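pasting for the record
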Amino acid sequence: MSSSEPKTVYRPRQEGLHFPKYPEHASVEDERRHRKERLAAVCRVFARHGYEYGFAGHVTVRDPEHPHLYWTNPFAMDFGRVRVSDLLLVDHEGTVLEGTWAVNRAGFVLHAAIHEANPHLVASCHAHTTHGMAWASLGRKLDPITQTAACFYEDHALITEEAGAVVVERDAGQAVAQAFGNSKIAIHQNHGLFSAGRESVDEAAWWFIAAERACEIQLKAEATGSPVHSMNAAAARHSSKHLGTPFMAWLHFQPIYDAVTRTDPDLFD
């Protein structure tokens, strides 16, 4: 993650006030530990949000020293109990290099392909969430009907490749990854949501949370039967410019991270 100060209108002009900033790492080992702590925290947060569905769901982040390897949660372990020491280091062939649990086959196929096809991405999240799956069944992109949805305006993909099929073969995973492209999120038809972090796993987690919320809001708005009004293109782009950056996603996740570290200190074990 860059240590530079991203520009944002939310940064206070008054001197001496606390405002979160990207962490700086003294060593690659320090950055690796940081990424693993955030990944474990994301698992805990997803459990709190009710994103678990059996063994489905996976979060990944690249290793900072070996970018062809990534860390992920163990297969069939409750998101709510994942600790740093439980995380798996996996290569693009699905071989577990560190850790004692199995890796999710579908998770490996999809995430390895996403990381391999998009070297600019640091992290990715996927879960079988109620509103994300419901919206994905419609085969539509989200409309910019709220500021939350506007964050994804002209920056999310609708993937129809392998729609509904369990992706467990490498060729299928590569087709999905290519369709993902440079997007913040992808709506995989008849499957659910994927998110990507260009700079951090925090970012990927927030985009997933925001996308699930955007799906819920649009489903509820359309269910009223009244006309749903989208922003015009200029307004949607304006909101995306100010709210849809990697730093803003990271910033949104910080109070969530703070809360889970206070209630779940064992995640650092």
